[in-house]
Design brief:
Elements lengths: L2 H14 L8 E15 L10 E4 L5 E4 L5 E14 L6 E7 L15 E6 L2 E6 L1 E3 L2 E5 L5 E2 L2 E2 L10 E3 H5 L7
């Protein structure tokens, strides 16, 4: 089996069965201006491979081909839904097998959807005076299935169409 497929399956299983509580969706506009990459096995990024005993006596065996960890510094420009404690957020996660950051390092704004540990984003681009983003990166926004929003021929959605579904943003 291909190693990235194995990593994807293991990540899915860990997220699915971790028992985490449902979190409030946060939609915001902002930009990532710094990303810190740490190698697996460093003090701030422990190695995932190995076995560990669970409190019930069972053993959790982890096999990972990730490269390490990343922490992105996200500057919040505008919160669309949910609440954030600060105008600067730290987004941390494991990197994949190719050691590439997951977040867009750019001074340009992007649309971010944060739901617990799950973060989806798409760069915003202006077309004819309107802000658009790629629909492919999201399944739903603010409780509305992504397919319900009007798309252009390139799969782009106008941000103002999403804002219409958010009472405070109308």
């Amino acid at each position: 089996m291909h190693t990235s497929l194995v990593a994807t399956i293991l990540t899915f299983l860990l997220v699915t069965f971790s028992g985490s509580a449902h979190s409030e969706e946060i939609l915001l506009i902002g930009n990532v201006d710094a990303i810190l990459l740490l190698p697996a096995g460093s003090a701030q990024c422990p190695e995932l491979n190995g076995a560990q005993k669970n409190p019930d006596g069972s053993t959790l065996l982890t096999i990972s081909n990730d490269c390490g960890c990343e922490t992105a510094t996200l500057h919040v420009d505008h919160v669309l839904t949910g609440k954030v404690a600060d105008t600067i957020l730290k987004l941390s996660k494991r990197t994949g097998e190719w050691c590439r950051p997951s977040y867009p390092l750019s001074t340009r704004n992007a649309l971010f959807q944060i739901n617990g540990k799950n973060v989806h984003w798409s760069m915003l681009k202006e077309i004819d005076g309107r802000q658009f983003f790629s629909a492919a990166r999201f399944q739903s926004l603010n409780g509305t299935a992504i397919g319900e929003f009007p798309h252009d021929k390139n799969g782009q959605i106008a941000l103002d169409d999403v804002l219409k579904t958010i009472p405070a943003a109308r």
